[in-house]
Amino acid sequence: QKKESAQDILTIDADGLTIWVGRNNRQNDFLTLKKAHPYDLWFHVKDQPGSHVILASHNADPTDAQIERAAQLAAYYSKGRDSSKVEVDCTLVRHVKKPAHAVPGYVIFTNQTTYIVEPKKE
Predict the structure, then answer these.
(1) Label partner for 11 (CA 20 to 30 A): which of 31, 52, 68, 113?
(2) How do beta strands 53-56 and 86-92 pair?
(3) Domain count for the chain
């Protein structure tokens, strides 16, 4: 199961930083809990089902454009895709926790910043 979720994770380059997009519950868990570094940025659309998106910054300071790109992808790969503006929460991966016995893909998080973006794939 782990191997299956490690493959086929959508990987996008954003001006030198990598963005990973989980496209199902298992990939979301794998990305957020195993693959991401604690100081990477984690994005998820606010109050709706959607992908976990990781901006792999490894403690570097990402540019506003890189942050916006990751937030747009999180909005696009969510139930809010058809809206013109979507709220996307962003926090460090270290602030994302999985409660005991929670279903795959379910996490709780703190210390978030909310961005309002237009969903975009490219």
Answers:
(1) 113
(2) unpaired
(3) 1
Quick check: is 122 in a domain?
no
Instruction: Measure the CA–CA gap between 84 and 32, rounded to whole angstroms.
Output: 27
Per-10-residue mean pLDDT of the chain, 122 residues long, equals: 62 94 93 95 96 92 96 96 96 97 95 96 80
Pairing of strands 108-109, 96-97: antiparallel
User: Nearest-CA neighbor of 12 among 23, 1, 25?
Assistant: 23
| Single-letter amino acid, residue 95 | H
d(CA 5, CA 116): 29
**Strand pairing of 53-56 and 17-21?**
antiparallel
Question: H helices within 7-81, ranges in order?
Answer: 25-30, 64-76
Exposure string for 36-58, b = 16+ CB within 10 A, e = fewer: beeebbbbbbbeeebbbbbbbbe
pTM: 0.93
* Structural domain boundaries, residue 26: 2-117
